[in-house]
């Protein structure tokens, strides 16, 4: 589904990611861990097409990421960024309906008028349906995090990229969310690549874990072997 080869890159010619290679299969739940500043978010930005690498290659479904248009990529990849910048005057339902995709030119909305049924379904699954008409600025940080996740899921992506999805969430909701994600990978073949801070939590849910250290792969294995 996704193949990354000898990826090196960062911001204004400073290497943050160094010679990183790995592949992720369809339906896999793949975790990325590492200390603050080790390059986890930077790596995810490259995979999502927001940030171009200096060298190396990223292929999705056998084709280089560069050969996809932004619109085509938006149909395949949905992203939950670490720090989301939402227009707070939108309601929850509007936010989920709009869809959103990030690429090198910034964020853009993918399509509006999305199927009502899907919008309600993901709002139920992420526990935000009861806030449907609330404005984003009326929600708590954790509630907003769930709206961002609903928005990503409403795109019905094949690959879901999550940057610390359990941030701001209380423990019971973290488990619900990860149980749901695990279910979707099994039932629909959704591929999930997610950054975590908590090794124990990641180990419970991920098929494989990649540990980053100062931009390089320190280890990559199934959770009980990391
Ligand atoms: P955290 O666990 O804190 O989220 P991280 O592993 O996600 O950390 P990154 O955000 O990828 O780390 O940052 C890696 C390095 O890149 C850091 O040294 C950071 O200062 C630098 N960096 C991140 N974003 C930018 C940017 N927009 N411009 C320049 N440097 C950046
Ligand atoms: Mg980060």
Bound molecules: adenosine-5'-triphosphate, magnesium ion
Q: Which segments are poorly predicted (pLDDT under 50) over 5 or more consecutive residues? A: none
Count the E strands. 12
Q: Gap between N and C termini, in Å?
A: 23 Å
CATH topology: Rossmann fold
Shape assignment: globular
Q: What value does the Rg take, in angstroms? A: 17 Å
Number of domains: 1
The total count of helices amounts to 7
Description of the molecule:
With 226 residues, the protein is of the alpha/beta class. It has one domain: P-loop containing nucleotide triphosphate hydrolases (Rossmann fold, 3-Layer(aba) Sandwich). Helices cover 32% and strands 29% of the residues. The protein has 7 helices and 12 strands. A 6-stranded mixed sheet has the order 6-9-10-3-11-12, with helices on both faces. Helix 6 links the parallel strand 9 and strand 10 (191-195). Helix 3 (92-98) packs parallel to helix 5 and helix 4 packs across helix 5. The protein is globular, with a radius of gyration of 17 Å. The protein starts with a strand and ends in a 5-residue tail after the last strand. The model has no long low-confidence stretch (mean pLDDT 87). It comes from Mesobacillus campisalis. Residues 2-226 form the ABC transporter domain. This is Iron ABC transporter ATPase.
